[in-house]
Amino acid sequence: MPSLQDIRRRIASVKSTQKITKAMKMVAAAKLRRAQDAIVSARPYAYNMRDLTKRLAARADRESHPLLSPGRSETVALIVVTSDRGLCGGFNSNLVNTTMRVLREDFAGKPVELIIIGRKGVEALRRRPCTIRATHVGVFEKYSVTASGRIIEEAANDFVDGRYGEVYCLYNEFKSAISQKVIVERLLPYELPEESPGADIPYIYEPGESAILFSLLVKNIHVQMHRIFLESAASEQGARMAAMDSATKNAGDVIDRLTLKYNRARQDAITKEVVEVVSGAEAL
Fold it and tell me: Distances from the Cα of 127 to the Cαs of 75, 124, 133, 171, 204, in angstroms?
């Protein structure tokens, strides 16, 4: 049975851990507010641009632009967006497990190359049976729209050059502070609707249909990748806040159990001393 000093030392250790987890929860909550505002502001623009681009692309010939035409290769590029830091619950483990399931089931028999964003994803997937094409670490520490643009531009260039036949992205979509959903989204080639409303309505393009379509197709994938990064950043902070809140509550439960154990051990020690004193007095 541990001594009273050992129990006191453990209680102090757990209290110190509880202070850390509580502070991390408060920091994550502050970052979550900013990240949530950013993704809520970015979604309307990104969704409307995606819909507009698909409507215009549906009116054009698939062979008119390399981002619309099917890829010439069977190799698939899968961009996996994870975090650089841990202590965020199942945020990264869910992404890694889903990645392996997608490789095993959805892309069975196809060569797949992974483009991994985030230190935790790199560390986990390097130990798994998969092919890693590129890694990007530290993107979220000083994130800017140019970072996501550079990553998707490299993948798009490989798609146009014929290295990839399809480009997908796997990430956590932000639902709420305590809820995220793993999404697998195809970025290239564009998924066009079978029926486009208003397809028979004539449009006047200036400077020209091909120039406008080319500009929109390129800008849209940059905007969608930027939105995906914002979704992941908000999801990470929400997962970290929930994990630290749970850890703080668990530390409180441990402290309560240790305090009860300490009081019982102390009471037993006092009772034992009283019994020894009474026995000694009776012996005299």
Answer: 21, 6, 15, 20, 54
